[in-house]
Amino acid sequence: MTEAHTHGADDLCGAGLTLYVRALRVGRVSTDDTDEAPCLVGLGLLDPEPGNAPGRLRPVAPAATLGSESRAQLGYLIGQSGILDPPG
Ligand SMILES: [Zn+2]
User: Fold this and answer.
1) Across the chain, what does the average pLDDT equal?
2) Model confidence pLDDT, tens digit, residues 19-51
3) 86 C-alpha to center of ligand 1: Å?
4) Cα–Cα distances in Å, from 16 out to 38, 51, 80, 87, 88?
5) What b/e string do you get for 26-37 counting C-beta neighbours within 10 Å, with b at 16 or more?
6) Centre of ligand 1 from the C-alpha of residue 27, in Å
7) Are 46 and 36 in contact (CB under 8 A)?
8) Which residue ranges make up each domain of the chain?
9) Residues around ligand 1, an ion, CB closer than 5 A
10) How far apart are CA 37 and CA 40, in angstroms?
11) How far is the CA of 6 from the centre of ligand 1 (A)?
């Protein structure tokens, strides 16, 4: 049993941010991955992937849901992850 994630979208936990950045980077995550960060689903940051993709979740655009502090934190993590860097 993991700890309760009672925080809001503007105060994402570390596990939530990490998984969310990974979801943004690869485009999807497995529902198994949300064991560590169930808050992402509860807060609407991850949605079930449409079509026949059971167990898959896709990230929802951050601007709509996150508060300014988490957006700044997320921006930092996204920058660190290199997903905005051109390929090659
Ligand atoms: Zn959380």
Assistant:
1) 81
2) 998 998 888 999 999 999 999 999 888 999 888
3) 30
4) 8, 25, 16, 26, 28
5) eebbeeebbebb
6) 20
7) no
8) 9-81
9) 5, 13, 16, 39
10) 6
11) 7
